[in-house]
Write a structure and sequence with these properties.
This protein has 212 residues and is of the alpha/beta class. The chain has a single domain (3-204), classed as Spore Coat Polysaccharide Biosynthesis Protein SpsA, Chain A, CATH 3.90.550. Helix content is 38%, strand content 16%. It is built from 8 helices and 7 strands, in the order βαβαβαβαββαβααα. It has a 7-stranded mixed β-sheet with strand order 3-2-1-4-6-5-7, sandwiched between helices. Strand 1, helix 1 (28-44) and strand 2 form a beta-alpha-beta unit. Helix 1 (28-44) packs antiparallel against helix 8. It is globular, with a radius of gyration of 16 Å. The relative contact order is 0.19.
């Protein structure tokens, strides 16, 4: 099965505020863009991915990610993360109603294409499925096969909320790169230990990160 991935990205100027202990205001937008670029690059290289749609109103991110081959969907609802994902899903399925669609976080800079393929292949066994993040509290991927709605419930305690909604939790080993999102300095150190993509590596080289 081939999947369309929907990746949400907020305005870069407001992104990654929890990284303030590691990166100052002038560096965080560049880090957020680098995370998204490495995520999109890995997603487009995944054999289970047909295409990638990024939902964002950020002009710079739209230009950069569009140049990489992603489809840019404006965040017309401007109603938060879940509204953005539902909108992008609807846009994708307007032209391809039988698409299998998965929402993927934009902050997975260590993402590896073959690990993503393992997760997506496992998700084909369920109408809706999700992968918890490395902290086992949130969600990094939510998938829905053709004919099923994503019904995204990202945000605080999204792992519990997605499970309660009936989505199957994917319990897979050796897919750390798909689970390691980056919100804090500790998360960034964990991603760097896994091995990040080239854009994140370059952006992170400007930081002084204890423990690298």
């Amino acid at each position: 099965m081939q999947w369309t991935l929907v990746i949400p990205l907020k305005a870069l100027a407001r992104a990654k505020s929890r990284l303030s202990d590691t990166a100052h205001d002038g560096l965080r937008p560049g880090l957020a863009l680098a995370f998204a670029q490495d995520t999109v690059a890995a997603a487009l290289a995944c054999p289970s991915v047909k295409d990638v749609a990024v939902v964002t109103n950020d002009a710079l991110a739209g230009r950069e990610l569009g140049a990489m081959g992603a489809r840019i969907v404006p965040d017309e609802p401007s109603g938060g993360l879940n509204a953005a994902l539902a909108h992008a899903e609807a846009v994708v399925r307007t032209t391809r109603p039988q698409s299998a669609v998965a929402a993927l976080n934009a902050d997975l800079p260590a993402l590896r294409p073959l690990e993503l393929a393992r997760v997506l292949d496992a998700a084909t066994e369920f109408p809706r499925a999700f992968l918890p993040d490395a902290a086992a509290i949130g969600t990094t991927l939510l998938a829905a096969i053709a004919g099923r709605e994503l019904r995204p419930l990202f945000g605080t305690d999204s792992r519990a909320r997605h499970r309660a909604s009936g989505a199957a939790e994917l319990a897979l080993a050796a897919v750390d790169s798909v689970r390691q999102d980056v919100d804090t300095g500790d998360d960034l150190r964990a991603a760097l230990a896994l091995g990040v993509g080239p854009r994140t590596a370059a952006a992170a080289a400007r930081l002084l990160i204890p423990g690298q």
